[in-house]
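Notebook entry, cofactor series.
This is the third protein in the set we're modelling with a bound small molecule. For this one the ligand is S-adenosylmethionine. I'm keeping the input format identical across the series so the outputs can be compared line by line later. Sequence and SMILES below, as received.
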Amino acid sequence: MQVNDLIFKELIKRGYSLEGKTRVWNIADSKLWYLSPEQAQGFLDLEKSESYQEEIIAKEINLIKANINDILKKVGNKPINIIDLGCGDGKKAEIFIRYLKGKVKLRYCPIDISGYMVEKAMNRMKQLNIGEVVELQWNISDFENLENVANLLRGSQYKDNVFLLLGNTLGNFEINELLYEIRSSMSKGDFLIIGNGLDNRQEKDIIASYNTKEVDDWLFMILSQVGFDRRDLEFNVRFRRSRVELYYTLLRDKKITFQDKSIYFSTGDQILVSVSYKYGRELFKNFMKLYFSDMKLFPSPDGAYALALCRA
Ligand SMILES: C[S@@+](CC[C@H](N)C(=O)[O-])C[C@H]1O[C@@H](n2cnc3c(N)ncnc32)[C@H](O)[C@@H]1O
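Returned structure with ligand:
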């Protein structure tokens, strides 16, 4: 079988740490979730599941629709670049863009680590035929390169940038790291619109919402690409340190080889593949205020999701 060298390297590079006597291999990096077209499509399928629709998609879309006029009032009507960070298939950006039709001149620039997603988002926007769609070598990019992209775009008649970070993407990152990255690539007057969950649920309910066959099937694709078999692993979810941790426990010893290197896993080892940070409203607000003195929060009626409109 062909081993995915990127995932293999990540396991070698990060190694394991000991928690008590348990070896924990932490490769929880969202970059590894969308490497193949199957994984990217797997995420789009996961989004269609009832719980995902209910907890994230519907809440975020309703918030966008309910507050778009307020948001647009602040953003103004100068020509803008819409930089869709982690665009996915672009369905959320589409809502903004439809409202902007005829009011604002715009260029859409999707940024995503997955070429599959970028293509989906681009095709969607081209079909809408509302503004220009920016195609450059940086579309398929890690958030780490953001500064380059933002500077490249800020020329010509489109001087202002509106960044979108929707779909709870922030929750999959260490919040300070990603906010710092984005803030550094913004110029004065640029806007950032974040859509993120605000968790006021009990831990057991949070765990239950992640402990599903759909999530397991999608995340398992990471480990199947380095040679793990379904029978090698058990899927588990726990809540620790303000975050949900999704991991696999080894049910038997396993050796994985790529070129001249081997990794030996032992029964009971844990491989952490995903984390999702959960913040209450006040904590989330405080984090945002560290980076943006001009910030407005638009919470959903049930208080479980929010849009944050931030101005640099
Ligand atoms: C949770 S999805 C959200 C998609 C979309 N914004 C939405 O709301 O439907 C996160 C997206 O971010 C992308 N992504 C994850 N890690 C990334 C990274 N380090 N750099 C760039 N894009 C990344 C993924 O490929 C995925 O499309």
